[in-house]
User: Fold this.
Amino acid sequence: MRAPYASDPAISRGRRHAEAASPPRDDFQRDRDRIVHSTAFRRLVYKTQVFLNHEGDLFRTRMTHSLEVAQLGRSIGRALGLNEDLIEAVALAHDLGHTPFGHAGQDALHECMSAIDPDGGGFEHNFQSLRVVDRLEERYASFDGLNLTFETREGILKHCSRANAQWLAANDPTGVGQRFLDRTQPSLEAQLCNLADEIAYNAHDIDDGVRSGLLALEQLEALPLVRGHLDEVRRAHPALTGRRVLFETLRRLLSQQVYDVIDSTRASLASQRIATADDARQAPVLVRFSAEMRRLADEVQRFLRANLYRHPQVVATTDVAREVIRELFSAYAAEPAQMRSQQLGDRSTSRAVADYIAGMTDRFALQEHARLTGRRLAWPQRPRADD
Ligand code: MG
Assistant:
């Protein structure tokens, strides 16, 4: 049963270009279908999160991450009576704007763009995800992009700098970036996707980190949130060893966080007397962890930053990734004709280069780098996961 505060496709704020309905699908289901059929979605298979695509077939990619966010989001959303189709659409699209090579690629592209035009908004992956669905996908005869509903686009634009929000205010009549200027919230479904994203990556980065050998199971004992579950698994299954200890621990961790979000969000919906989807937009963030879980989850993020994302072996690889992006950027900016089937349209050359690079898979970026520079970069070796 959908709650009265769930987003309702029948009263959607609509699409940028009017289209006839497509029964039996409603508008959010149609958005989800368009995302799944898009080129950018298919490429998520070959884009990485923390590890690089060529480092092993067993680590998360942006595709598997997006599916995990959709799964967690729908489970929690079902319990809260939210709109599962909208949750799924936002979750599957939330990372479409990510560059190759994870955050290292994004940082490098942001530096390249900011150096050329300090006031041009640089490169932000959330803003880029919106560009992908609004403009860069080329599938329909009468419009650019996927022509998604306001609610799906609102959820995709998870963060937005003031500069980019002002650009949207001047150039996008739908008001999709207005909340960053007004400091209001998006729909409950969008809020949930943000939190499901965090729950998913904390758990799967621990998983990939341990299976890669960069993190030791014993290190996790320093984290109160993980420690309790680890102790419980060892108590319940004294003979258990290896990866089953890790997976039993992580599934308990996921369940605890899912139940925490359900309980805390129900409490905040009740205390704020939320009756409609628009009430939720005017209230403080409602889909949330309890204060205690927030503290514990922040601790996990600090731990992952210090021990995994800044692990010397990860840093050595991301340094090479940054170099690839910088050199690709210079090569295309100097000779835009090297970009295949790209028309500038009303874009600056640098923005067209950023769009082109952001759309690449890890593998294609490396091929192009070798083609344009004549050099093959040496990647640091890393241990591989064994399952
Ligand atoms: Mg994500």
User: Anything to note?
Assistant: The two ends are 40 Å apart (CA to CA). Residues 65, 94-95, 197 surround magnesium ion (CB under 6 Å). The chain has a mean pLDDT of 93. The longest helix spans residues 243-271.
